[in-house]
Amino acid sequence: QVQLVESGGGLVQAGGSLRLSCAASERIFSSYAMGWFRQAPGKEREFVSAISWGRGTTYSGDPVKGRFTISRDNAKKSVYLQMNILKPEDTAVYYCAATSNPIRSTWTTKSVYDYWGQGTLVTVSE
Fold this sequence. Notes:
Layout: E1 4-7, E2 10-13, E3 18-24, H1 26-29, E4 33-39, E5 46-51, E6 58-60, E7 68-73, E8 78-83, E9 92-99, E10 115-116, E11 120-125
Parallel strand pairs: 2-11
Antiparallel strand pairs: 1-3, 3-8, 4-5, 4-9, 5-6, 7-8, 9-10, 9-11
């Protein structure tokens, strides 16, 4: 069964850091691009970052550029999101997702993702 399991969420003060992890089943990890999305209360789910399966090419949304870094460890079948200089507006449920679509420009779109995790809550206090 295909699974994506996120962990690492929690409560942090503004300016602090958190590292999210997503463990994937082997079936999807070896050939899928991986992405992170987030959804704040009352808002649409938005793209955060994505990374290719091969060369590890990354792509991030403007709100997190320079603060968040996506990475992957193929041996551990895991993808990570290092979040630094966190702001209250980063508060959201963060979701890990996997897509078989190789075209980087599509990775910002929720509908191209085939599998989703259950989400992990990140809360950033003032």
